[in-house]
Design brief:
56% of the residues lie in helices and 0% in strands. It contains four helices and no strands. The longest helix has 14 residues, at 35-48. The chain is globular and about 30 Å long. The termini are close together.
């Protein structure tokens, strides 16, 4: 399932574009502002729409395990 930009806030869309256009990038947002969905949408866009760029990049997503393991798992399974 491809993640869709239609449900993102403008600042999240900006974050997705920033990740896609900058090989070295970081999202530093307050809790609850959608870092997970922004990152997953950017990765999805890179995989499906910018595959040539995706192949040339290494990605590291770092976060505390206890706070993010469930949200990443659910986000990747449901496309949310």
């Amino acid at each position: 399932m491809k993640l869709n930009r239609d449900n993102l806030h403008e600042y999240q869309k900006y974050g997705v574009d920033f990740i896609i256009n900058n090989p070295i990038s970081a999202l530093m947002l307050e809790c609850g502002l959608g870092k997970t969905i922004t990152t997953l949408t950017a990765v999805s866009d890179l995989m499906y729409d910018y595959f040539e760029i995706f192949l040339d990049r290494m990605m590291l997503c770092k976060s505390p395990y206890n706070s993010s393991a469930q949200s990443w798992t659910v986000g990747m399974e449901t496309g949310v």
